[in-house]
Amino acid sequence: MRQGLEPLVTKTLAPSLYQVYLHSEDYDRLRTIFGELEAEAAKLLDEELARMNRGPSPVFGRLLKPFRKGREGNGEPQAPAMRYVSAEGRWFIRFQEDPNGSLAPGDIEVVSEFAQPPSATYGAGSKTRRISTTRRLGSTDMVTRQETVDSQGALARIGFTDKRGPQTYFMTKGEIVIGREAPDVWVDLRLDTLPDVSREHARLQRTPEGRFRLKDLSKLGTTLDGKPIPRSLETLHGEVKDFDRWVDLPDRARIGLAGVVVLDFERIDRT
Asked: Is the pTM of this model over 0.90?
């Protein structure tokens, strides 16, 4: 969390979205307790945020402190102390299988993201600041790297129309979640549409080999070029199980969500 802080004038934002990548063996082994792990991680993040708010003020607060002191003698009211807050007001922790094949069993990579507003420059596109922290099994050291991902370096382009009108989404990372806009679920491609579309409707992934594939997580189904694809989630003995069923995508495809929204997918070839 601390590496991804974004200081503002009156508060400092902490990233709300944390994607936890695991080796495929660890992902399969821990799949049934992801809910408990997410709840525990959210509790720890709350505790860390409270600890930070009890400590020294953010850097902007320290810079402004001399000016605030100068106003005390003039009887001017002092500005409230800066606070650390979650950017979205709550935490979104998502466990995912390592799509790049770079993690060994026991390794863990945590990625936090901040979406940045699009640049006013023509054709500049939108940007995302991404901070990745990796710890290898048997090592106490953590490797942290920070990058700004520009939509001009996107892997794929997805066009669609929802209640807001025509939209374009650029896929800039190895796996995204597609779904209906809702306050309690984090999705990468947010759709403002009818509740027929699930809050977490589908996942779109780019494999280490450079292929794209799609997984249906919905209740009312997903189609690929007009044909239904297998559902990945099934209820067995009262529990929902993910069978990890993926369908390969061609370079161009029309993805239908519950017969309500159509996504025009297009792979972007950078070679």
From this structure: no
